[in-house]
Amino acid sequence: MIALGVGLSVLSSTVVALPAQAATVVAVPLAPVVETAREVARFWLADDAANLRNATPYTLRTVTGGERLSTEIVPDGPPQSVPPVEAENPPPGDLPATSGKVFFLGSDGLPHWCTGTSVQSQYRNLVATAGHCMLDTEAPGGGLGKWVFVPAYSEGTTPFGLYVGKQGIVHSDFDDIRDYDRDYAFVTVYSGVVSSSPDALTSVGRLGDNVGCQGVAVNQPLPPAADVFGYPAGTHPDGTGPYTGQTLERSTGSTFAIRPTNLPSDRPVGVDSPFTGAGSLGSAWVTGYASDTRTGYLNGLTISVADTDGDNRYDTGVSPYFDTELFLIYRDAARRWTGIITRIPG
Predict the structure, then answer these.
(1) Is 346 contained in some domain?
(2) Cβ contacts of residue 133 below 8 Å, gap of 6+?
(3) Is there a contact between 119 and 214 (Cβ–Cβ < 8 Å)?
(4) pLDDT, tens only, 161-194
(5) 345 lies in some domain
(6) What is the pLDDT at residue 20?
(7) How many folded domains does the chain comprise?
């Protein structure tokens, strides 16, 4: 059950007791100044968004092994939640506009994508994704290059604009020692832009105002089921490739504790999901999802996938358990202001 009623006051209160060794927040600069952010936006939107269209799915740490467990996960503190926010003008259908693709340059210098989602924050400017879809873990030294978010991405389009990342907020244990129990990132983004001419950008407003925000829930019992929203691509081990990565996909499955065989993580969570790993890293696990409002509570983020029954088809998504440490990182990120990078129409 999700503990409701905490509300936005959580973002500025101290309702969560700090553990003996509290989370250390690491802020990773992405595009810290407006001039840099404009250059990043133009890079992705130039030539009819050619770099968005030509990006390939990120394939770092997409696959792990794992054994499903029947044990419960014990929370490290009281359950807490922050409620979602509906979009002002939601698109047709029953899929959330909050989900989209995060694009960036990998260590190879080429454009890649993961999945991300808009989450509740004071300034309606926050995106959640896997930590290694923001932090460059192949060449330690900061964030992945030219990081942006495109909500509701579909077939090369940017229906709600493009949002340049300003800062990525991560746990020090992921930054320092690659503890995959902390493989999550909350990225603050500037207000969105569209290309109004070959060299001009026009502001389209704040992310959360345009697409809504998922809530966040931590220290919850494992839910009976979660909806997973992402952009899977690539193939299963048997060679079949059911996903293109060009449109948002949804799967619904039960959750469980899992013991990974080659992932540095002590207490990850699994979900029944047929998503392939490439492209779906960072997929949102949403509990209590309502199709009429397209909102629920973010309670997991895909950091890898596994074939747990040995049939050569992926059947499980893997996420860190959302605990007090995650909530402290989220709460810090949710209070950070960003602003706009270009003119307002008119």
Answers:
(1) no
(2) 58, 102, 104, 114, 115, 116, 144, 185, 281, 282
(3) yes
(4) 999 999 999 999 999 889 999 999 999 999 999 9
(5) no
(6) 38
(7) 1
C-alpha angle 72-76-77 in degrees, rounded to nearest 5? 120
CA dist 249 and 280 (Å) reads: 9
The reported pTM is 0.92
Q: What's the average model confidence in pLDDT over 284-307? A: 96
Residue 344 maps to a domain: no
Distance between CA 13 and CA 279 in Å, rounded? 36
For residue 131, give the 3-state DSSP assignment: helix
Whether residue 343 lies inside any domain: the answer is: no
> Closest Cα partner for 219 from 16, 8, 7?
16
For every residue of 159-224, DSSP letters joined together read: TT-BEEEEEEEEEHHHHHH--GGG--EEEEEPPEEEEEETTEEEEEE-HHHHH-BBEEEESPPPPS
pLDDT score for 19: 42
CATH of the domain at 138: 2.40.10.10
Q: Output 91-94 pairs: Cβ under 8 A, ≥24 positions apart.
A: 91/152, 91/159, 94/291, 94/292, 94/294
Domain span at residue 197? Answer: 8-12+22-333
b/e code 43-70 from CB counts within 10 Å (16+ = b): bbbeeebebbeebbbbebbbbbebeeee
